[in-house]
Amino acid sequence: MTGAREIDTPRGPARVTQHAAPHPARGLLLLGHGAGGGIGAPDLVAATAAATAAGFDVGLVEQPYRVAGRRAPAPAGHLDEAWTAVAAELAKDHVSSAGGSRMGTDLPLVQGGRSSGARVACRTAGATGAVAVLCLAFPLHPPGKPERTRQPELDGAGVPVLVVQGRSDRFGVPGDGPDRRVVLLDGDHGLKKEHGALRAAVGEWLAELPLPR
């Protein structure tokens, strides 16, 4: 870990905890937390390890409501606004600690998160210029209410997407689609099992991504 910084957004300060790749970075991966959880979630920790090993600097983003000490999530529009502001700020001044490359010229952006954070990443991919999205436990619908699907958010990312999902997730299990790979692991929405398989899936996908030069 290389430290944390606060970034002002229209919805209050967000916090980004930075993890550097061991060699000059190929890209920057921003990951957001779930609605009621934080950046210490086991799947986020595993994905961070996989990404840094694959040559990505990682920023774990805490939304303003969490930084302010609130557990109840902000409305979707507020989450998206804060996320977009964080990505824009990092695009201006992110410097790879290992290689000195400036984000926005040499480091492409991949974004993602778990659960609510995955939804934010899909909804804002176009606005931030992300080249791919990583979804951990994407909540396809509220439990027991498949008619309230969030499939349009997933389909609307507009870039390659990796979904890592528990087979017994009560929030639903997305299917493969154009430019979307779905990896199923044992477990539920918490993704607290098979972290070796999660790291392998994320690392292989990042290694295969066609990144702009």
Automatic annotation (TrEMBL):
Domain of life: Bacteria
Residue ranges of every copy of the KANL3/Tex30 alpha/beta hydrolase-like domain listed in the record: 27-174
InterPro entries found in the cross-reference section: AB_hydrolase_fold (IPR029058), KANL3/Tex30_Abhydrolase (IPR046879), NSL3/Tex30 (IPR026555)
Upper taxonomic lineage: Bacteria, Bacillati, Actinomycetota, Actinomycetes, Pseudonocardiales
Protein species of origin: Pseudonocardia parietis
Protein name: Alpha/beta-hydrolase family hydrolase
Region (Disordered): 1-21
Pfam families associated with the record: Abhydrolase_11
